[in-house]
Amino acid sequence: MPSYKAPLRDIQFVINEVLDTENLYAGLKGYEEATPDLMNAIIEEGAKFAENVLSPLNQSGDEEGCVWSEEGVKTPEGFADAYKQYVDNGWPSLSAEPEFGGQDMPNMLGIVINELAGTANWSWLMYPGLSHGCIKTLEAHGSPEQKEQYLPKLVAGNWTGTMCLTESHCGSDLGLLRTKAEPQADGSYAITGTKIFISAGEHDMSDNIVHIVIARMPDAPEGTKGISLFVVPKFNVNEDGSLGDRNGVHCASIEKKMGIKASATCVMNFDGAKGYLIGEPNRGLNMMFTFMNTARIGTAIQGLAHAELAYQGSLEYARERLAMRSLTGPKNPDGPADPIIVHPDVRRMLLTQKSIAEGSRAMLYYLAQLGDIVDRGDEEAAKKADDLMAVLTPIAKAFVTEAGLEAANHGIQIYGGHGFIREWGMEQIARDARIATLYEGTTGIQALDLIGRKILGSGGKLLMGFTEMMGEFVEANSDESYAEFTGALSTYKDEWLTMSLEVGGKAMENPDEAGAASVDYLMYSGYVVLGYFWAQMAVAAQKKIAEGEGDTAFYEAKLMTARFYFERILPRTASHKLALLSGADNLMEMPEAMFAF
């Protein structure tokens, strides 16, 4: 397994030189103290924790896995100790509200720390990772009593949180859920049902686990309109905040999985468990989107994490592995062969990994910034940021995880046969990456959300909000020296809008047209959005080179990677465009029975 080294220079470049974090947070109420110096210091400490504590547990955790018993789930050796260090160092409270013990740092800083920890050891991050969504849900929708009872311990990290949505018969169609919530005389509800695929549903790392659960109350409307939201603790909580008796929720089993084996994925039985209604009845799914959107951005970070780790391992190997000679003559004449990094195809894969990781980093940090503007900006700025988040979140979740999986697969390919062998760790990265395209809504579901709800559902307004921002960037950087990036970006922007209108027109006559176009449309959108962030990074690098400031080699590498992305990766949009405009007939004309031939 590659030893993870935090890419601090690139992180600082994105935060300080591309996204202008200093000016943003100076103007957001409560974030004035989030200066570059303070954030860099926090990030450097996060890097040390990721590199020295979490990374050494990544491969061993995969090999050991979790162990289920009737008493609970035992995590791999070292995981609980690492979590104790995580809590003792105050990481869980970083971006939480100060009223409940949080440090009130920007959400973007929390995303950076999650990237560091997740790249070092994604399975481990799954345990505290969902606590962030649990905290955000209670902060946004919980009653004052619920906030007081649960948030201090969750924020401190003494307790962890989960999200309990799906059931074996319904998958992503949550309107089919059967879990029941029966009202009790004391104002609580008896929650009965079985939830599956519950990440960190049971473990030995915290004192209590707080489950956020969707269930159906008696006489609730059919479908998603009849879903309510409940908080259900593993141990009941006494009025003074101490832990009481064990609640009626237990882990029936843990899944045997392809990857993230050190993360306990649980089947959870609720047997009349005591739960408490969050917010209004039958509004559970609306409130749950607070949790799900937080989790979707967190899952997008997984795509970035696996792309980065695969790239680091691939680059080290490609520099050291000797095989064949360069086509243009020996580059290592004193050795028996040249390092494989001299070969064009190896460089193609390395640059693909690099462009995916670094482009995704800029995109996801920007998305996190938007969340901070929604929380702390004025009404106009918050509305604009919320609209941008609405259109970017499904792209980020689906596209970045698909691209991250591609980068992980390239890692295996660069190693050749050794990539298929467990001891090198590259196959684990690919196995761990595979789930990211599935949970928190598959690529297909995110694609339907994008094209159906966000693009067509808004009459194109959400898309135009983003493309107008692209246009402003192009106009502000119309100098000839930037034209290879901004000129191309302008062309893609116009094509994206025109294509969206064409798909929308077809979908008005036949709804299947939207579904048939959806995944290709999302992937097209993802490549263009990543192109926008690569153009920003290229312009920032060119300006630094012209000024003669800083590490010129770093900026020249950034510029070369941007050029590779625009010339080698961004043209993939052409095939997606042809496919999505081909229409629904080539998918829908075959009768079901003929699929058997």
UniProtKB/TrEMBL annotation:
<dbReference type="InterPro" id="IPR036250">
    <property type="entry name" value="AcylCo_DH-like_C"/>
</dbReference>
<keyword id="KW-0285">Flavoprotein</keyword>
<dbReference type="Pfam" id="PF02770">
    <property type="entry name" value="Acyl-CoA_dh_M"/>
</dbReference>
<dbReference type="Pfam" id="PF00441">
    <property type="entry name" value="Acyl-CoA_dh_1"/>
</dbReference>
<dbReference type="InterPro" id="IPR006091">
    <property type="entry name" value="Acyl-CoA_Oxase/DH_mid-dom"/>
</dbReference>
<dbReference type="InterPro" id="IPR025878">
    <property type="entry name" value="Acyl-CoA_dh-like_C_dom"/>
</dbReference>
<comment type="similarity">
    <text>Belongs to the acyl-CoA dehydrogenase family.</text>
</comment>
<feature type="domain" description="Acyl-CoA dehydrogenase/oxidase N-terminal">
    <location>
        <begin position="42"/>
        <end position="157"/>
    </location>
</feature>
<dbReference type="Pfam" id="PF02771">
    <property type="entry name" value="Acyl-CoA_dh_N"/>
</dbReference>
<feature type="domain" description="Acyl-CoA oxidase/dehydrogenase middle">
    <location>
        <begin position="163"/>
        <end position="271"/>
    </location>
</feature>
<dbReference type="Pfam" id="PF12806">
    <property type="entry name" value="Acyl-CoA_dh_C"/>
</dbReference>
<dbReference type="InterPro" id="IPR013786">
    <property type="entry name" value="AcylCoA_DH/ox_N"/>
</dbReference>
<feature type="domain" description="Acyl-CoA dehydrogenase/oxidase C-terminal">
    <location>
        <begin position="282"/>
        <end position="454"/>
    </location>
</feature>
<dbReference type="InterPro" id="IPR037069">
    <property type="entry name" value="AcylCoA_DH/ox_N_sf"/>
</dbReference>
<keyword id="KW-0560">Oxidoreductase</keyword>
<protein>
    <submittedName>
        <fullName>Acyl-CoA dehydrogenase C-terminal domain-containing protein</fullName>
    </submittedName>
</protein>
<feature type="domain" description="Acetyl-CoA dehydrogenase-like C-terminal">
    <location>
        <begin position="466"/>
        <end position="591"/>
    </location>
</feature>
<dbReference type="InterPro" id="IPR009100">
    <property type="entry name" value="AcylCoA_DH/oxidase_NM_dom_sf"/>
</dbReference>
<dbReference type="InterPro" id="IPR052166">
    <property type="entry name" value="Diverse_Acyl-CoA_DH"/>
</dbReference>
<dbReference type="InterPro" id="IPR009075">
    <property type="entry name" value="AcylCo_DH/oxidase_C"/>
</dbReference>
<dbReference type="InterPro" id="IPR046373">
    <property type="entry name" value="Acyl-CoA_Oxase/DH_mid-dom_sf"/>
</dbReference>
<keyword id="KW-0274">FAD</keyword>
